[in-house]
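pasting for the record
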Amino acid sequence: MEIGAIIHPLLYVDSGAVIINKPPNLVCQLGEEGQSQNNRGSDHGDFKSLLTDIQETLGLKEFPYPLHRLDKLTTGTLAVALNRQTARDISQQLQARTLDKTYLAIVRGGGRSFTERSGVISNYLICDAEGTVSVTKNSEWPKTRSQKDRPKWLSKSETHWELVNSSPSLPLSLMKLTLRTGLKHQLRVHMAQTLQAPILGDRRYASAKISKKITEIVNIPQDTLFLHASSLSFNRYFPKQTRIKVVAPLPGYFTKLCAKIGIQIPIEYTRIGVWKDDVEVKNVIQDFLNQQSSQASPIVDTAAEPTAELT
């Protein structure tokens, strides 16, 4: 087996799960009968093709199970289960908030824009009938006259943020964001509406256009959002509980912009990394594929906590 058989790069693989380094412009959602809801003609193919590549390369009997989503323009770590048992196990970790997700973002605001270097955003978000999310002071459902105006959801949200570095010449900063709840557009809304520092490239939630001071120096393409799912941490069982952490390197356009505007990026954000119980391991994917090539039997997940079957 060759890693190149999978078009989209793998960051981590074991007997029950893979972590993918998602490219931009890929919609991570399957519609009816497993059809991808990605735009046709994308240079990155569609989501169903990605999952099919994984199934064929790893010789799986089951079609892989998507576990969560990333917005179309967001890049980085995306978890996929290879069987029903692992799908249930990791889904339970998502619900229990024991799976940690960390993001990196370039936001519109210099170092002086923030009175603190870190903090916690905790408030309620509401999603209207059109799918737009906003901060609300009310924890109760608003009264509406018609069903079509009824919000889709209202929920408590929490994001931990840390200012990593700022540009010395432009009002732009690198922010580390950790999700404690995983609501639609949560990070984008928290940055734009709570910190008043929208993510660069976010034209939906930013209340003002990018300043000329920025656009005169850098060109921000229409379909680029500087938001990257940097790492995932979750539990697996080999057979004892093992904490896995997977890091996806920042995409090239992200690091090039930081270099141009003088934002220093910590080295750990620029390379692939896999840790088991805080010990870094190398060649995880190739070692796994070599092991599978030497075995005639199909992949059986021995790294998931025993659970009941999905119904």
